[in-house]
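To the wet lab folks,

You asked to see what we're planning to order before we commit. Fair enough. Below is the target structure as tokens, and below that is the sequence we designed to fit it. If anything looks off to you, flag it before the synthesis order goes out.
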């Protein structure tokens, strides 16, 4: 079955959203916090709708993926279940792999380890506020530049996100130089740089 992840609302939207399959098990102290049991591992997780009690079965979840405390381990915020056009839950067997859309600034990359990190922060008009974090992804980018804004499609393989495809959306932001003491040349017009706007 083809997985459809909603297109970004604006070109420079930060996000780390996707589809993950698993059984949510609440903790003994808080039903909105617990673990997600997938077929190949356990992940810390929480419910976005804190009052909701999902059925005790494997489901296909719409989620946000993030990391906590600057650690590479994945943490999932479960927004709700992935449904078909008729509003019915999609059976987990129909999904071949967990898939994610990551959009943010390139924080680092390592050619030897073949991995990179994308920095994600809240968009300006975001309802959900959170501290900036990074997502580590396995794979190699073409012509990576620090600070460039990237859009990445990835799948989950065990405890890692693995690159499927990626593209640079905006080049790195360049700070404009301060005005000098001398007068500007009459023959040259100042050039304005095209830079991405903060989306939330």
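Sequence we intend to order:
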């Amino acid at each position: 079955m083809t997985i459809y992840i909603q297109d970004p609302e604006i070109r420079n939207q930060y996000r780390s959203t996707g589809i993950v399959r698993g059984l949510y098990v609440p903790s003994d102290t808080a039903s909105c916090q617990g673990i997600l049991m997938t077929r190949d591992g356990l992940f810390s997780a929480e419910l976005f709708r804190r009052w909701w009690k999902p059925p005790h079965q494997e489901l296909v979840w719409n989620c946000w993926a993030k990391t906590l405390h600057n650690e590479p381990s994945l943490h999932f915020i479960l927004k709700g279940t992935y449904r078909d056009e008729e509003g019915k839950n999609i059976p987990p067997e129909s999904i071949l792999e967990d898939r994610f859309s990551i959009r943010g600034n390139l924080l680092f990359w390592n050619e030897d380890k073949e991995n990179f990190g994308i920095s994600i922060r809240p968009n300006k008009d975001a309802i959900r506020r959170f501290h900036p974090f990074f997502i580590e992804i396995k794979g190699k980018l073409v012509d990576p530049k620090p600070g460039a804004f990237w859009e990445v499609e990835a799948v989950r393989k065990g405890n890692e996100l693995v690159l499927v495809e990626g593209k640079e959306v905006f080049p790195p932001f360049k700070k404009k130089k301060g005005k000098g003491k001398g007068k500007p040349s009459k023959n040259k017009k100042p050039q304005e740089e095209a830079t991405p706007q903060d989306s939330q």
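Structural context that might help your review: The CA atoms of residues 183 and 189 lie 12 Å apart. The beta strands are 15-26, 33-38, 41-47, 59-67, 74-81, 99-110, 115-120, 133-138, 149-157, 160-170.

Thanks,
Computational group
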